[in-house]
Amino acid sequence: MEDSSLEEAFDAATQYVGAASTNGSLSNDQLLQFYGMYKQATVGPCDAPKPSFFDRKGRAKWQAWADLGQLPGSEAQQRYVDLLTQLIPDWAAGSSGSGSGSGSGSGGGGKRGGAGGPVQSRMAEAAEDEQAAGPDATPPLLQAARAGDTAAVEALLQGGSDAGQRGSEGETALHWAADRGHEAVVALLLKHGADINAADNDGLTACHYAALAEQRGAAQLLAAAPGVQLGLRSADGETPADVAPPGWDFLQASDG
Amino acid sequence: MSGEDKQPDKQLAPDGLAARLQAALGALTMDDASGQRPKQNYAFWGTQPVAQFGEQPSSSATDGPIDAPKTVADVRKEPYGLPQNFEWVTCDINSDKELEEIHDLLGAHYVEDDDNMFRFAYSKEFLRWALQPPGFQTVWHCGVRVSTTGKLVAFISGIPATVRAHSNQLKTVEINFLCVHKKLRHKRLAPVLIKEITRRVNLHDIWQAVYTAGVLLPKPVAECQYWHRSLNPKKLISIGFSRLAPRMTMARTLKLYKLPDQPVTPGLRQMEAKDVPQVTKLLAGYLQQFSIAPEMDEEEVRHWLSFQTDVVHSYVVEGPGGRITDLLSFYTLPSSVIGNDQYDSLKAAYMFYTVPGATPLPQLMNDALILAHATGHDVFNALDIFENEKILKELKFGIGDGKLRYYLFNWRVAQDIPSNKVGLVML
């Protein structure tokens, strides 16, 4: 039953896409994807010679097909139907091929639900960025560390930037590199004499940050660096090991 | 099917034409995709007794039914026709096997987000609770099976509820859990399911229904916005539910959302059976201020608000002399996380009925966050209904990318209801 219903869905979807391709409701890129999956489903893996360099459209189509490699035909059919459902959730409910404007909007599940159901909402992109509105007052060295830009960090330090300068939370460039897991920047900052035990306004060191953010590589690098004090406690009385995921034994303070 | 290249060649419109058409239709199709703007026409909903876009004002001057009055005798006696090899089935929630079938169908084929990262994963206990309130009818748990294999491939449900819309008390069903197997979405089963559940409800002399959807259909009585409060920000970021603000460290993000281990309101405790009469009165009084709200008797309050771990968490504040002054509640609705190596499930709490009395609402809601966090929920979700609008930001909720629309079937309201006048929660 499953196979025959997939065939039917695929046939219906190809008809829909065929009609929709003329009304602009699908982009060229989308049509190319449909083309590739159609060929894969109906012919099999691409065995056609690659069109000449000057046949731009031909090459784009060939590529869309060839990109699917050895994908089985039934999987290509399923992906074809899924892509259409993703782009036009109620395509099957509307009259075939009329594109926008005639769906019933009662798809019975799928994205955002049909009628009679809740919504799968998640955090909108802007939600947590409100504090970030306005110009970024973070010092350039900290920004470079945040971005993992070793060349910029190197250049700023060579140019005389203070490796110990602080951001708004009292954090240093080393905190940012640890938080984001940029190990090369961590190493570079340490090489330039950044204070490995510097604490932010809450008493958190770069080690705390690496542990909190679960940046294992950065945490290991810091824990093995000379001069590190793993027994330092935050304002909440926690050591890096206290805030780390289970099993990060390398953060245990050896000197108690 | 032959290997001929002809059809897809025709499908691929010439670059210039496609680009022009796309530019011309760009704005429209983008809006359609997000369901923010009415479509030209609705093949199915245009035939149903629902308020339509662009109706003459004169026809909507007063609240009332849309269809001419009917009686049970007027209702079609035989079920609506299904495509060949499909048949109707009434699902028995009390049968473990049938409950499992519904659970599995919804688990694999129900609502996903726009990027197909999360899919609702209602637990069996939750479905039992959601589908069997006082007065439930088994025939309103309406499924479709494949005749040859017996496989359950579609479902829709109705549960009885008394709902007040403006000043009218309506005997309604709440329609929910409309789900069609992904591979059968082309068979147009959803409209048949809606017509069949309508028929089965009409046979019980009920002529109005309430339902919700994310998509824009003719025609919402209310449009509400989802908000989300991170409880476990690291996990939410890791699974792509939210993202780390570009200028914020993870350390600071964790601090921002950190919650105490214990609620702060004195006298706050789990709701118990003995609280039902007081809670019923408290809730009824509070819901008066909203333009659409349920009317629950004691049996319904007992059903909907009895504490059940990871189904519905309900708490009351008990003041001097055993007086119940406040209510807070949320329900647990996990989602499957699709294609993540580290996590396979997201445990979300959804705000349910909450009544501030002696306790200020922000404090009561903050206690709800604390309790949800302490019971392992990753995120707390709420709509901008009730009085939430004024407290969501201060409680560090972030706006969601989803809207929820409320609809009434066979009932027209003269005045759309603003979200802060909605006092009804649908699961």
Description:
The complex is a heterodimer of chains A (256) and B (427). The relative contact order of chain A is 0.07. Chain A has 256 residues and is mainly α. Mean pLDDT of chain A is 83; it is low at 94-107. Chain A has helices at residues 2-20, 28-42, 56-66, 73-87, 140-147, 150-158, 173-180, 183-191, 206-212, 216-223, 240-243. Chain A has 11 helices and no strands. Chain A is elongated, with a radius of gyration of 28 Å. Chain A folds into 2 domains: 1-86, no CATH class; 140-251, Alpha Horseshoe (Serine Threonine Protein Phosphatase 5, Tetratricopeptide repeat), CATH 1.25.40. By secondary structure, chain B is an alpha+beta fold. Chain B folds into 2 domains: 3-15 and 224-407 and 417-421, Aminopeptidase (3-Layer(aba) Sandwich); 21-55 and 62-222, Aminopeptidase (3-Layer(aba) Sandwich). Chain B contains 10 helices and 14 strands. Chain B has helices spanning 6-11, 15-34, 96-109, 124-131, 189-202, 233-238, 250-257, 276-287, 298-305, 361-374; strands at residues 86-90, 118-120, 141-146, 152-165, 168-180, 208-213, 222-230, 268-270, 292-294, 312-318, 324-337, 345-351, 379-383, 398-409. In chain B, strands 1, 2, 3, 4, 5, 6, 7, 8, 9, 10, 11, 12, 13 and 14 form a 14-stranded mixed beta sheet that branches. In chain B, a hairpin with a 7-residue loop joins strand 11 (324-337) and strand 12 (345-351). At the A-B interface, helix 1, helix 2, helix 4, helix 7 and helix 9 of A face helix 1, helix 2, strand 2, strand 5 and helix 5 of B.
- Percentage of residues in strands of chain B: 25-35%
Helix coverage percent of chain B: 25-40%
Sheet having the most strands of chain A: none
Provide the structure class of chain A: mainly alpha
Number of helical segments with 4 or more residues of chain A: 11
Give the CATH H-level superfamily of the largest domain in chain A.
Ankyrin repeat-containing domain
Rg over CA atoms of chain A:
28 Å
Q: How much of the polypeptide of chain A forms β-strand, as a percent range?
A: under 5%
Helix content of chain A: 40-55%
Shape of chain B: globular
Enzyme class (chain B): transferase
Domain Glycylpeptide N-tetradecanoyltransferase N-terminal (chain B): 65-224
InterPro entries (chain B): Acyl_CoA_acyltransferase (IPR016181), NMT (IPR000903), NMT_C (IPR022677), NMT_CS (IPR022678), NMT_N (IPR022676)
Function (chain B): Adds a myristoyl group to the N-terminal glycine residue of certain cellular proteins.
